[in-house]
Amino acid sequence: MYKVISDFYEERIRSNYRRLGWLGKVTDNAGKEYEFRSRNISQGSGTLTRSCAGSTNLELGSVYASEFDVGLYGAEIGITDRYVLYDGKIELSTLIYISNGIDTWNDAAACTWEQLSSSPWNNPDAYDVIPMGVFTIQEATRSAGVISIKSFDNMIKFDKSFRPNGSTKAAYKWLTDWCEKCGVVLEMTKEDVEKLPNGSVGLSFTPTDDVETYRDALSHLAAALCSVAQITRSGGLVLIPFGAMKSQKTIKASQRFTSSLADYITRFTGLYATYSAGGLTEYYHEPTDDGLIINIGTNGFLQIAEAASRKKACQNIIDNLAKAKYTPFESEIPCDPCLDPMDIVDFTEGTAAGEVSCITEVVLKLNGAMTIKCVGENPRLNQAKSRYTKDISGLQDTQEGVEGTSTFWLADAYLNDDLVIETAAQVAAACEFRISTDKGRGDINFTATYYMIDEGLVTIIVYVDEIEWFLLQDYKREGHCISTVTTPFEIASLNDETHEVRVEISCLPNTSPAEDLIWKTAGYYTWGEMTSHTWG
User: Fold this and answer.
1) Residue 146 pairs with which residues in a beta bridge?
2) What is residue 400's predicted lDDT score, i.e. its pLDDT?
3) Helix, strand, coil content of the chain in percent (nearest 5)
4) Which of 47, 150, 240, 530 could form a cystine bridge with 139, CB 3.0-4.6 A?
5) Separation CA 345–CA 481 (nearest Å)
6) Considering the chain, what is the average pLDDT of its residues?
7) For the residues 143-152, what does the mean pLDDT come to?
8) pTM of the model
9) CATH match of 395-531 with 1.20.120
10) Burial class of residue 341, CB neighbours in 10 A (0-12, 13-18, 19+)
11) Exposed (0-12), middle (13-18) or buried (19+): which is 144, by Cβ within 10 Å?
């Protein structure tokens, strides 16, 4: 939320009578400047849209660019050639008149002669100037003397090809390097970044298929820091974290034209994250796990080989996201130019009962009303859908034919070299899936690479919906080993049912080889070794 210095702002913006004006400047690609005011704006034009989420739910790591569209009377401000505007700059500010002086004859009509003689006229300091943003012009068209401009903020400057390196840096160093390469100012101090979840630890980036630009990489880093990325009104980059919902402004019934408030509270208590090197889709959650689940997929900054560090980083994200409990809404209000995405507001009076929300979108019409909204799903109605239909990178699903066929790859599970496979079964991989046809047929493929400190009988069991579906026993010598399981399956299913595949692995040490050997193990022995054993 933009902080206004004047003490009169809040009084004026909430009063029944207030005056707003617009002031701006266009700088063409040759550096020439053209100033404009409210009278130079085509009637009915001018829309500023800011967002930090999609149309249905909050998004970790969002990198939305704000958009400003406006029509200007070009001849009035000296613009004769629209082609000079491409890649130029347009700045916008709001004027909030706060003086008790007399600016119009309507103001004078309510005054006595004494008031008229003592009041200043056209006081140049009679308003607050509130910057609304700096935007890069991407398109300019002319029609009937009006130049229509479409522009975006500096987030688009991060749309440059990203070339990762294998270094490990703190988040602040990543951000400063990227801002320098893309020509954007980082409006955060090192201390600000280190206060974010995972902001003080060293992070390395593992290339992923969906990261091609600095903007893609910024999205991954912001998600790892439980934040969204936004461009400020002065054009700099900031990361805004999710966390405690402390209201910054109260919006009363008299201060809104329309409002629609949900009858539920949106909250997240679980998180899916994919560790690609281990082929694992891991689940992290709060102690009371009864809310929505967010899936961050394969995040390039969370591909941490050390399991304890990876778990801590992911748990930090859901612990902070779980603090954001908000009521979705949509409301049309008189223009309040200080409101921004990620601002926390509460609603009172009328149908509202003190609901607290996080603004996810602001749509401001110049010389008109403002629409603010907060998106979010209902944890009760969408619990099954939200918890089990998220895309899981470790699980690929293809469906063909009338009855439908599906193949599931439980990607390679590279177990730690120092892992001791004990007698008790350990879960090596697991995932949940749904089948959208009446009958599902397909294959389950699983490969485990591990280290045996001693020879023994390795047992791998595949469970489908808690039923033992396939069992593989293989005698392994000490050292590096590989076991592969491939098995078909068939499940009759309703569309809304979820299923689980789980693979467990255990090892029975060979304490009495002479008694435990079977014919399958004979291939590991010489003839002399075989004749010296007692078989059976």
Assistant:
1) 73, 143
2) 30
3) 20, 40, 40
4) 150
5) 57
6) 80
7) 90
8) 0.69
9) no
10) buried
11) exposed
